[in-house]
Structure to design on (152 residues):
């Protein structure tokens, strides 16, 4: 069984030795901002759905995203493993330059949530990028595979 490379392979031992953990996760086929910390309380503050911290995703869909689809995503869709509860986006904005692109803001991060929400409105995610977490934006000059320290 093949193993996917880990973000931890990019980090020096001094950081790994501190018990560094990912704040949330990114799927293998998702790009974007991934925060790391050795502060368990900070990790909980950002990842706990009860805290309502926002994550912003740039989503390229296979098919055009209609106003009706956006309304459903805002009102809430049902995911197969949570049939008694709907999950909704905090906001969904169309990209004016592309009928298949949206920006979606969520306050929680269930397993494959963006992909599953988009599937619930009969579409498919072709490309997914997390651009912000808790108001912290991914710097445009930070290339894929690069990292930097962030101060409070």
């Amino acid at each position: 069984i093949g193993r996917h490379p880990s973000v931890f392979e990019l980090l020096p031992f001094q950081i790994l030795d501190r018990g560094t953990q990912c704040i949330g996760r990114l799927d293998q086929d998702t790009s974007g901002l991934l925060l790391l910390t050795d502060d368990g309380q900070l990790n909980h503050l950002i990842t706990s759905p009860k805290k309502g911290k926002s994550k912003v995703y740039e989503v390229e869909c296979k098919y055009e995203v209609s106003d009706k689809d956006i309304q459903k995503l805002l009102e809430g869709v049902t995911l197969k493993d949570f049939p008694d509860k709907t999950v909704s986006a905090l906001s969904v904005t169309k990209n004016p330059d592309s009928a298949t692109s949206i920006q979606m803001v969520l306050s929680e991060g269930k397993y494959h949530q963006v992909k599953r929400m988009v599937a619930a409105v009969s579409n498919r995610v072709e490309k997914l990028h997390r651009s912000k977490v808790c108001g912290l934006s991914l710097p445009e000059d930070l290339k894929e595979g690069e990292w930097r320290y962030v101060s409070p």
Q: What stands out?
A: Strands lie at 21-23, 30-32, 35-37, 55-61, 77-79, 82-87, 91-95, 98-106, 125-133, 136-137. The helical segments are 13-16, 40-47, 67-75, 113-120. The chain has a mean pLDDT of 91.
